[in-house]
Amino acid sequence: MKYAINTKIFRFEAAHHLPGHHGKCARPHGHSYRLEVTLRGPIKKTPGASDHGMVIDFGDLSRIVKNAVLERLDHQDLNAVTELHTTAEHLAHWIWDELTVSGLPEALLYRIRLWETDSCFVEITQRERN
User: Fold this and answer.
1) Which of 44, 58, 41 is nearest to 126 (CA)?
2) SS3 for 56?
3) I need a surface site. Which of 31, 107, 118, 122 has the fewest CB within 10 A?
């Protein structure tokens, strides 16, 4: 069986703050987040099926990410929406959870990479989830 690793990139704008942090991130501020969702799985071999030759149709992945994450976080206060201490690390795990609850098979979800700025990102993989 052949496998592939697929990544789709999404963007959203959101505000947050880190109470108790000893730096400027303690104050409310915003980021232009870049979210990379990476899947790893078998390439489907059902001739005639819409997703033949794919791990997942990128349109299906986009729909799941949009409904589970983007519509909830874009132009929102992340502290209010997630009820987390909104570090990029916590947000990446929250996104992973929301994607799997929304129907993305956890067996396919390989990596979440969340860029907070152009030069800073957090990455979690299946290994960090265990």
Assistant:
1) 41
2) coil
3) 118
- Per-residue model confidence as pLDDT tens for the chain (130 residues): 899 999 999 999 999 999 999 999 999 999 999 999 999 999 999 888 888 999 999 999 999 999 999 999 999 999 999 999 999 999 999 999 999 999 999 999 999 999 999 999 999 999 998 7
DSSP one-letter string for 92-120: HHHHHHHHHHTT--TTTEEEEEEEEETTE
Catalytic residues: 25, 75, 116
Q: Cα separations (Å) of 110 from 48, 117, 119?
A: 27, 22, 22
How many degrees, rounded to 5, is the angle at CA 80 between CA 69 and CA 75? 55
Per the CB < 8 A criterion, the answer to whether 98 and 70 are in contact is no
Distance CA 14, CA 73 (A): 7
